[in-house]
Recover the amino acids of this structure.
């Protein structure tokens, strides 16, 4: 690993984020610190604070990289432009596979809490919205007769459902409710939800 004078500011940011990802992958978010990152890349903690405002800033940028990696995985899952119902299942399977293969990096997205008074960066929110949009697009193709707001809401409902199944599965909670796999439970959710979504919209009771 090169010393501090051998890297530009951007290069240092990249190697620090890569080191943070490696630490989180091995030890979870609780095992991450600026001291560990600095030691891993051969720099001082002070050098990191010339690049990142604090540890929270480093984690936020690391999590955005994880969202980019997840988005790339999901885009690849529907690259062949399968029928909408198939595409939605492929997106769910891609999300589940990422969570199972990169559990600590995936969990870090949801475990990190900014200090009181700080807001989530716009760039983070935009990356999350970009993933919702993948599902929303397929729902609109599946049921073009429905208004866009229905697909927006449904994309968030489905995403929340699949996410919850992943959380329960990773925590081995599904074993306590029948021993079904993450994939089986997710498949049941999708089958029933998409069947209902494809039905004519029922009028709202007055």
């Amino acid at each position: 690993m090169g010393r501090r004078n051998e890297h530009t500011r951007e290069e240092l940011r990249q190697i620090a984020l890569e080191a943070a990802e490696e630490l989180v992958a091995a030890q979870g978010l609780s095992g991450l610190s600026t001291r560990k990152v600095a030691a891993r890349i051969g720099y001082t903690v002070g050098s990191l604070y010339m690049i990142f405002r604090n540890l929270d800033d480093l984690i936020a940028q690391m999590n955005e990289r994880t969202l980019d990696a997840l988005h790339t995985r999901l885009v690849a899952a529907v690259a062949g432009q399968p029928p909408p119902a198939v595409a939605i299942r492929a997106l769910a399977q891609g999300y589940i596979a990422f969570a199972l293969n990169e559990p600590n990096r995936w969990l870090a997205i949801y475990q990190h809490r900014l200090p009181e008074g700080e807001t989530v960066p716009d760039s983070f929110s935009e990356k999350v919205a970009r993933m919702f949009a993948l599902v929303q697009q397929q729902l609109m193709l599946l049921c073009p007769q429905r208004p866009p707001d229905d697909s927006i809401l449904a994309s968030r409902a489905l995403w929340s459902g699949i996410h919850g199944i992943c959380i329960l599965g990773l925590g081995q909670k599904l074993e306590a409710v029948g021993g079904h796999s993450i994939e089986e439970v997710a498949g049941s959710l999708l089958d029933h939800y998409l069947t209902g979504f494809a039905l004519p919209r029922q009028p709202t009771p007055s």
About this structure: The mean pLDDT is 92. The chain has two domains: 1-52, 56-198. The radius of gyration is 20 Å. Residues 74 and 94 are 6 Å apart (CA to CA).
